Amino acid sequence: MLTFCIIWALIALCQSAPMDEVFSTSEFVCLDQACYSVSWEKKKFEKAKTTCEARNGQLLTVTNTVQADAISLLVSKAETDVRVWIGLEQPFKNRCTNMLESLRGFSWVSGDNKTDYTNWRKPGVRKCGALCVTVHKDGTWEETLCDFKADGYLCELEYTGLCSPLTLKSVVNITYSHKSLGLGRSGGSIFPSGTNAYIASLKDSLFCASEGDGQPQWKSEVPGPWDCSIEKGGCENDCVMEDGMSICTCPPETHLKDDGRTCVKPCDPNPCSQLCIPISESPGFVCMCQEGYELADDQKTCIDIDDCAVNPNICDHHCTNTIGSFVCGCKPGLELVTNPDCDDPDGCPSECVDINECDSPFTQCEHDCENLEGGYRCFCFEGFVVDENNPNKCKRFCNTSFCQAECDINDINKCECPDGYIVDQNDEGMAICTDVDECESNPCDGICTNLFGSYECTCPEGFIANGSECKSEEGSGLPETTTTAKRPFETPPTKPSQPDIHSLQPAMLLGICIGVISILTVLIAILCHMLRKHYMEEHALDYKTKNNEKNVRLQQVKTDSQRKL
Question: A GO molecular-function term, please (predicted)?
Answer without folding.
Answer: calcium ion binding
